[in-house]
Amino acid sequence: MTFRVSIRGRAFAALLLATLVGCAQAEEKAVVIPPPAFDEMPSGAATATATFAGGCFWGVQGVFQRVQGVLKAVSGYAGGKQEAAHYELVGSGTTGHAETVQITYDPSKITYGKLLQIYFSVAHDPTQLNRQGPDYGPQYRSTIFPADAKQREIAQMYIAQLDAAHVFPAKIVTTLEDGKAFYPAEGYHQDFLVRNPSYPYIVINDIPKVRNLALTFPDIYRTEPVLVTPRSAARPAG
Questions:
Q1: What is the pLDDT of residues 93-117, one digit of tens each?
Q2: Residues 6 or more apart from 229 whose CB is under 8 A from it?
């Protein structure tokens, strides 16, 4: 069973969940974690990419759009075949895809390891297997898609570091999947949090993530998000 089979279904599920608990559901809390002991060295490259899956891409995208040094954060799909990279198909949980965000960043301003620290601390809960919050299924799994062997090594060592430090109440279940292509999601998913800040699902599940980013990483928080579609061209989702 999944709480989310469509945008309309997700809104109903979120409202139902809030009602069942009398709107007293505790907000997702950030987990303060140490930075990675092993990180990338400056390469001289103008840009680099990091690709993370951590539940619904609306919230993950919304977090990384407000990180200094991030040039673009695009919602999409990774893990499956190109022909299956469509929202309604991915929602079935049978395509191999995960809802994913690909981040283009300036490595002279932020490192891959710092992005991982944000990913594990505020963007999602890495101890939840095939789910995040009200969303269930392998399409919501916690997964890192390394761009190369160095990113894999950094991520692998950081997971081991965090597990050894017992910073989470359970073992990290985040997987690493190599050689998987990323496919951008449909246009109406891009910048969804920014364009729909009062949408029930966003209010309950994702705005707290952005707030946690500002509180936990104030030195790299940006008040104006970097958008896929400029505000002047954006239209509210129906």
A1: 999 999 999 999 999 999 999 999 9
A2: 187, 190, 191
Q: Is residue 41 part of a domain?
A: yes
* Cβ–Cβ < 8 Å for 125, 132: yes
**CATH code for the domain of 39:** 3.30.1060.10
Chain centroid offset of residue 54 CA: 5
User: Considering 56, 122, 155, 193, which one is annotated as catalytic?
Assistant: 56
Please confirm, yes or no, whether 56 is among the known catalytic residues.
yes
Tens of pLDDT, residue by residue over 191-228, are 999 999 999 999 999 999 999 999 999 999 999 999 99
Number of domains present in the structure of the chain: 1
Q: Residue 238: inside a domain, yes or no?
A: no
Phi, psi of 62 (to 5 degrees): -60, -35
Cβ atoms 76, 184 nearer than 8 A: yes
Give tens-digit pLDDT for 136-194: 999 999 999 999 999 999 999 999 999 999 999 999 999 999 999 999 999 999 999 99
Whether 230 is in a domain gets the answer no
Q: What's the domain range around 92?
A: 7-216
Task: Examine residue 135 and state whether it is found in any structural domain, yes or no.
Answer: yes
Residue 79 Rama label (left phi>0; alpha psi -120 to 50; beta): left
This prediction's pTM: 0.88
